[in-house]
Amino acid sequence: MSEGSDSDRYDDPIDENDNALDYLRDSEWPLTTLASLVDEFQDSSEPNTQDLVLCDAELVGALKALKLDPEVVQPKLSMGREWRRLYTDAIVLRCLNILIENSEQRAGDPSSPKEDSSKADSTTWEQAIRLLDQAIVLAGAPGERRLELVLSCISYIQYWHLPYQVSESNLSDAPERPTGPVLATSPVPAIDPAPPVSAFSQLAQRPFVLPGFAATWPAISCWTSREYLRSSGGRGRIVPIERGGDYRTDDWSVDLMPWDEFLESIKWGENAQTRESDEEHKVYLAQHSLFTQFPKLRADIEVPDYVYTEPGTCTFASSHYGGPPGNEEQLVINAWCGGQGANSPAHTDPYHNIYVQAVGYKLVWLAPPEATPGMYAFNSASPGENKPKTDRDPKREGMLGNTSSLDVFSLSQAEGNENSSHPAFKEHALPHAQSIMLGPGDALVIPPGWWHAMRGIGGGSFSVSFWF
Questions:
Q1: 112 in a domain, yes or no?
Q2: With 41 labelled, which of 25, 54, 59, 246 sits at a CA distance of 20 to 30 A?
Q3: Long-range contacts from 132-135, C-beta under 8 angstroms, 24+ separation
């Protein structure tokens, strides 16, 4: 059930026989697209035009005059969808204008884009693609056909001005299964073979693992290669990353980083035995809709049929389930990619989750909702002497309401830890805790309201979560 074309493969990033990509060879595409957008802005009945009515009239006028600077709109993105629409359109128009101006200067045969000696250097085009990625990452590229248009602009710029030189894939050998810490927890039950869809709603009341569930996904082998991941986005792409240990710490921050640089910084595809851990500069791509940005990667996974069931009707899960995500699909697919030791602290989510390990290994710790009194969550009345600090940033506190202040992996170790400083954890959480080491192709079903923490073991890790 994955979207995208099976023919859009690594060794042929652009299928030049695909009619859907004919626009890439059309040197007039930027001009005709811009003209179409200008006509759209003049039609007050167009939904995309109606979206902008609530924005500042002067800024909308600047947009229609093709003079709106996206940076002027960026501080207003949190004010509502209409501002995210305005920001997206300002970026698209800016990039189309750059393409048109360059086209007017360009000489030679337009049918040979990859040999084009453009007067605009690669920095100009990388900055344009960065802007287009910001329309997706920061604003969500809302509006009818806007995401498709943003992605088309990226592909057009890459095709004409930033062609990707594909080299040998160098798929990494599958690492040996690492040995994680021994935890004083129960194992997560495994169901093999995978159960029928009709049985899922009842089973999903509690966590269970599906060994090898996604073993046939192309992602399982292809994503081990740094070169494959780089080519899937093409040149100039950026992604949102987290810096620091995890989002509970004061040194944690978020940033936008070039995709190539991110893969380099986590030493993706390198042998775990020769890789040096860089705790000081740890980065993590967490909970990001990467597949919206990179449709080619979306074609490497499959949406499990289970997400189209209604497990929220189960008695156990219903009290912790607020309903499916509010988007049209009622499904959120996120990517999680990091180097050695990538960590997500114990937290809860309001959705059902099918968490698939694509590359590497991840140790997962779980506990049911009744363990909450022992989790020492931020903004909670958990008992005990070691409560979280109260002098933290209020905005951060709001983000941490569903997060534990504890290192559950350390406190759950079978030897050498008596949990004396956190007696409530020992009383309320540890007796109910479960753990599992996920390997490539394994899928873990996590009900809403269950505490769960993840830690990469033995090297780089790439996971996909399906919230529904």
A1: yes
A2: 25
A3: 132/91, 132/92, 132/95, 132/157, 133/237, 133/238, 133/239, 133/256, 133/293, 134/70, 134/74, 134/91, 134/238, 134/256, 135/87, 135/88, 135/91, 135/92
Q: Are residue 124 and residue 201 in the same domain, yes or no?
A: no
Q: 308 with 406, same domain? A: yes
The answer on pLDDT for 13 being more than 70 is: no
Q: Nearest-CA neighbor of 89 among 24, 158, 150, 28?
A: 150
Average pLDDT, the chain: 86
d(Cα 152, Cα 70) in Å, to the nearest integer?
19
Q: Interior CA angle at 461 toward 456 and 464, to 5°?
A: 110
CA–CA gap between residue 371 and residue 449 (Å, rounded):
10
Percentage of residues of the chain with pLDDT beyond 90: 69
Domain final position from 122, 146, 161:
161
| Nearby residues of 130 by Cβ (< 8 Å), 6 or more positions away | 236, 238, 256
Q: Are strands 434-438 and 186-187 parallel, antiparallel or unpaired?
A: parallel
In one-letter notation, the amino acid at residue 203 is L
Residue at 1 is within a domain: no
Residues 329 and 381 in one domain: yes
> What residues make up the domain containing 24?
19-161
Q: Are residues 400 and 442 in the same domain?
A: yes
Residues 440 and 336 in one domain: yes
Per-residue pLDDT tens for 124-161? 999 999 999 999 999 999 999 999 999 999 999 999 99
Query: Is this model's pTM higher than 0.85 or not?
Result: yes
- Are residues 128 and 202 located together in one domain of the fold? no
Q: Is 173 inside any structural domain? A: no
Q: What is the mean pLDDT of residues 334-357?
A: 95
For the segment 82-91, what is each residue's pLDDT rounded down to a tens digit?
Answer: 999 999 999 9
